[in-house]
Fold Transposase.
Amino acid sequence: MEQIDYIKDSLDIKDPNITFEKEFDKFSTHKVFYAKLDYDAPQCSSCQEKMAKYDFQKPCKIPYLEMVGYKVLIRLKKRRFKCKSCGKMAVAKTSLVRENHQIPNIVNLKITEKLMSREAMSNIASDLAISVSTVYRQLNRFESKTDLNWLPENMS
């Protein structure tokens, strides 16, 4: 149990619902950690009845920041819930990644930081073990939008 807590602390993951399994794979180029996201069943969003735990999704691959010179990949299984009355399905949510995404928030912040330091997009992608299109998406997401229909009353 101590090794599992150490993994969670060293990756700086704060979500208490994510539990790491004992085994992990260490390749020559990267490390793969296996984790599960599980918590008590929430209420159904449509009928407000209590949902039941159903099963786990296929593990999603979450690229994470480098650790001790190795690229890190987290294979996260998310719990699915099913409403007994209306049959609606839901997937567990975490603060690690945005809903319906696989790139963690901390990696998105690192991409933004590297874009502000004017690094090449291909270098950012290779450093963080992500695709160049992910870097482009992050750039478009944080693009500043200026309103040219309005000017301040006093200009410096």
Summary: The first helix runs from residue 2 to 10. Residues 2-95 form one domain. The chain has a mean pLDDT of 86. The longest strand covers residues 70-83.
